[in-house]
Amino acid sequence: QVQLVESGGGLVQAGGSLRLSCAVSDSITRFNGMGWSRQAPGKERELVALIGRSGSTNYADSVKGRFTISRDDAKNTVYLQMNSLKPEDTAVYYCNAITVFSKEYWGQGTPVTVSS
After folding, report:
1. How far apart are CA 110 and CA 6, in angstroms?
2. What torsion do the CA atoms of 9, 39, 53, 97 make, to the nearest 10 degrees?
3. How many CB atoms neighbour CB 40 within 10 A?
4. How far is CA 10 from the centre of its chain?
5. Averaged pLDDT for residues 15-37
6. Contacts of 91 (CB under 8 A, 6+ apart)
7. Average of pLDDT values for 64-78?
8. Alpha-carbon distance 93 to 10, whole Å?
9. What's the pLDDT score for residue 35?
10. DSSP string, 71-82
11. What is the pLDDT of residue 102?
């Protein structure tokens, strides 16, 4: 069973930065893509960023220009650099891995709180 462990969440003031990490128990090169999603209280989970095996990236409009997803294949780790944070970025952030058969593995999440 593949395990994903997120870390790096916490409390930050608006305008600040955080870097989230997702450590994966298997080689991330076996996955078609890696992603970060978030779920705010009372809201549905939404996709924030995706990175493909080739390094191609996609972002939600709400985070474009502020968030950057990256991967270190040697460390089997995916990162989400979050800059210019806003109170509306407050959520639990989840990492997921997507196989070529569209099966997904998820981590337990790391909470991010942005104070105004």
Report:
1. 6
2. 90
3. 14
4. 14
5. 97
6. 38, 39, 40, 41, 43, 111, 112
7. 97
8. 11
9. 97
10. EETTTTEEEEEE
11. 87
> Which whole number is the average pLDDT over 23-48?
96
What amino acid occupies position 26? D
Give the chain's largest Cα–Cα span.
42
Tokens coding 48: 């924030």
Q: Tell me how far apart the alpha carbons of residues 15 and 89 are, in angstroms, rounded to a whole number.
A: 11
Identity (one letter) of the amino acid at 77?
Answer: T
Residue 74 to residue 109: CA distance in whole angstroms: 22
CB atoms closer than 10 angstroms to residue 29:
10
Q: Quick one: pLDDT band at residue 73, thresholds 50, 70, 90?
A: very high
Six token digits for residue 76: 């089997």
